Every structure is written in C-alpha cells, then in structure tokens.
Amino acid sequence: MTSNDPSTLLVVDDDSLILQVMKLCLPAPDYHVITADSASKGLQLFAEHKPDAVLLDIQLPDQSGLAALHEFRELDRRVPVIMMTGHGTAETAIGAMSGGAFEYVTKPFEPDDILPVIDSALETSRMARKPAVLPSETQGDADDSSTDRVLGDCQAMVEVFRSIGRVAARDVAVLILGETGTGKEVVARAIYQHSNRRDQLFHAINCAAIPENLLESELFGHEKGAFTGADQRHVGKFEVCNGGTLFLDEIGDMSPMMQTKLLRVLQEKEFERVGGTKTIKSDVRIIAATNRDVEAAILDNSFRSDLYYRLNEYTISLPPLRERGEDIKIMAEYFFARFAKTLGKEYVSIAPETMASLKLHSWPGNVRELQGVIKQTLLKASGPVIVPAFLPKTFSPLSDDGLTKPANVGTWQENLRNWASTLLEDGSHNIAADIHDAVDREILPEILRATQGNVSAASSRLGMSRPTLRSRLKQLGLGSGAEKNG
Ligand SMILES: Nc1ncnc2c1ncn2[C@@H]1O[C@H](COP(=O)(O)OP(=O)(O)OP(=O)(O)O)[C@@H](O)[C@H]1O
C-alpha cells in the first residue's frame, strides 16, 4: 500500500462465503470491500463506487462472467479485473485474459494465493489512475492524497516537464534514466496519463524483481506444458496489454536472452508464448526505466546496443535530488505540509538551520529518501517549527563526527535495546523497519565489498535471492555503484 486512503475492491460472486471471506481477508483501514451477488448489481456498484479493482466470478446467476468483464471494461478499461474460476472453467478464464482480464485465480484458493494478486492489481490501478500532476496543471490542496504533484523548478526539471509534454502523445518508446527515487515511475505515469492511450490498460513490471524464467512467462505468456509446473496456459502482459502501455522498470537488469526477445517484440510487434508456435501480434507502447548507466552497460556488453537505440526513441534523464538546488526547499515545504495533515501533526515552517541541513545532505535515495526523512521528522516534532533536533539522528550532520554520539559503552544488545527505546520515545510507528533498515545499511555494503561487488556471490553469502538483494539495495538508496553484475 502506498497511500493512506483505503483501496476499494469490488467482489462479484453469488457464493456468499467467498464474499464474507474476502471481507475478512481485506480489512479496513487498508481496504474497503464492496460486494455484489450478481453481474447487474456489480455493474451498478462499479459505476457508483469506481473501485480500484474487481474480483469477478466466471459464473454468475444473471450473466456470464466473461460478458460482465466486457461490460466492466467498457465502463473503465484501466480498472484491473481478476477472474475467479472453478477447475472446469479454467480454459474460459484463460480466454478472459486475452479479453483484458488482469489475472485469473482458480477456486478454491487460500488467502495467501489471492492476496498478492489483489495487491498487484491495486498497485496497477493506482499507477494508472492516480493523477501525476505536472506544475503547469497544478491545482488544489497540498493535503490532497488522491494526486501526486510532480514538483520542480530547476532548469533540468523544467526540461523534463517539456519532454513529457512533447513525447506523451507521440506513440514512441520512452527510456527514463535516473538514480533510485528520482521519480522515474511518477514520470512514466505522467506520460501514460497524458498519452492517447490513457483510457487503455497500463501495466508495470519490475524486471529486477522477477527471476528470468518467470519474467519471460510474465511478459510473453506460456503454453500448457512449456516447462515443469506449467499446468495451464498463461497469457503474458504483451498480450493482455494490447492497445495499452507497459512500464518496464529496471530494464538494465534484464538478461541477454530477455533483451533479445524484447527487441523482437519492439521491432516486429509480434512474439510467441513460451513453448508455443503461434505468432501473436501486439501493439503495446513501452515506457522503460533504469537506474543503471546503460551506456557503460553497452560498453561492457551486458546491455544490447540495438535494444538501447530502439528503447531510446526518446530519453528523459532525471537529475539526482542533490543537483536540483532550490527544488529541495520547494519539495520539503510541500511534503512537510502534506504529511503533517495525513499524520495529524502541527506544522507551520522549517527553521533555516534545518533547511540548511536538508540542502547539505547528499540524498542517495533522492526524493523517496526526502519523503522518509520528512515523515520521521514530523513524528518526532513537538512544535510547529521544524528545528534540526527533530531530524532523524542518523540524518543529522553531527551524528557522523562523534559529537552527538554517546560514549560507546555496553554490549551491542544493550545499545540495540536503547535505540529501540529512543525510537519508542520519539513516537516512531516504524520501529522494526527502522532498525531493520539500519542493520541492512551496514551489512549489505559490507558483504558486497567482501565479494568485490558481485551480487550473485553476495546474495548467496547473505542467504537472500539476487532480486531481493537488488531491490533491498535500491530501497535503501544503496543501489548505485556498490554492486556489479554477477
Ligand atoms: N519531482 C517530484 N515531485 C514530487 N514528488 C516526486 C518527484 N519525483 C519523485 N517524487 C516522489 O518520490 C517517490 C519516489 O519516486 P518514484 O517511485 O517515481 O522513483 P523511481 O525513480 O521510480 O525509484 P526507483 O528507481 O527506486 O524505482 C514517489 O512517492 C514519487 O511520487
């Protein structure tokens, strides 16, 4: 969940048990589940509530689920619809995927099977529908959590906004470059939302988070029996998203085999499912992003130059936050005001010394790190003016030179307990994650150093999968430079 607003899920099934179970599995305040026992009631609720995603049974008393899927899509194609199917109707459900269903699940299912699918559908819906508002269109309150305002006044960001305006309506591939947390996803959403395909599907795939064989099937689909465990045909994103937009995040982490397959679909607009012979045509606009230095990757042969030129019909480079000058002030003021409202904290202004500290920081995690620091600061703040003492201890410029550190007494367990108590007193609601992050910030670079930056070796020593390690490094703003391919 990335927003404080609950996600609305419409569940349409004539089996009252399913409706009850889904309500229990998806509790408030994160979710708001509305239910219908027929297609007609579902369509009525869809129009009234504009849900973020739909869970739809394939057999309904008044209409087939497939016909209902078609009607939901007529109302709003951007809302992901997950089909629920019994064993006997799996083939129909697979057909529904070509009809634009987001995914299908076979009954009976365990909550653990369906919840990740629902969350992924809700995330897709957020990306497609939550407006990414550019400065030229900025209106409304700072506390309006239903939109993402994309801020920036420095020359480089003004150029980014011009580029979005120029490229959005042209049906070309776009490559977005920038360090972690610089806003690549929000720019991708702005391009899609200003494009001629804005009413069609938008799907996002994080290429670094999915192992190669699964990524292939996720993008291109597979036939039944294509590999061990492929007990049903699967329809991939290129097929589902026909007519829409696919956001391929972390494209720089794609394997050579996947790069070749992607190049073909970009050039020829056709592909085959894994294990299949039928050629499938697809018209999908690609927006790709990476935080890697692609030109260096081309030089060391880990990225295909022909794919780069194909993706690079238009490139947008996002500057790191530390190079955006006064934009740090504009963003800090905006996020303090916005988060103060959501967290129910008093906020009037930022003291000049605090602003000076914010400007001095190097922001390896860029805008995402700034947002995190501002939330932590607000939780600690006890007055309307944000003074430096409210900044997180790990952030304070003094915390590195020993001046503010207590004498190093006690065992590490005692220090850890003291730290947990301090976070408790500071009012944090994220204690486990804060401590976990701090531990990972120390150990991950250490193990990467010991393995000469080899991610495979480091992940094997850490007992973590490679994608997990990469995404963890990225989350912590440690993604650039520390690691090498491997
Ligand atoms: N210019 C901006 N103005 C306001 N908010 C921004 C701006 N750029 C990014 N953000 C916010 O910062 C957060 C991180 O941005 P985003 O997820 O788009 O970064 P990213 O470059 O895709 O990160 P990653 O490489 O880690 O996937 C989001 O909440 C986004 O809305």
TrEMBL record:
Compartment(s) of residence: Cytoplasm
Q: Which UniProt keywords apply?
A: Activator, ATP-binding, Cytoplasm, DNA-binding, Nitrogen fixation, Nucleotide-binding, Phosphoprotein, Repressor, Transcription, Transcription regulation, Two-component regulatory system
Lineage in the entry?
Bacteria, Pseudomonadati, Planctomycetota, Planctomycetia, Pirellulales
Q: Which residues carry this modification: 4-aspartylphosphate?
A: D57
Limits of the Response regulatory domain: 8-122
Identify the gene encoding this protein.
atoC_1
Sigma-54 factor interaction domain ranges (all copies): 150-379
Output the superkingdom of the source species: Bacteria
In terms of InterPro entries, this protein maps to:
AAA+_ATPase, AAA_lid_NorR, CheY-like_superfamily, Homeodomain-like_sf, HTH_Fis, P-loop_NTPase, Sig_transdc_resp-reg_receiver, Sigma_54_int
The name on file for this protein is: DNA-binding transcriptional regulator NtrC
**Which Pfam families does the record match to this protein?**
AAA_lid_14, HTH_8, Response_reg, Sigma54_activat
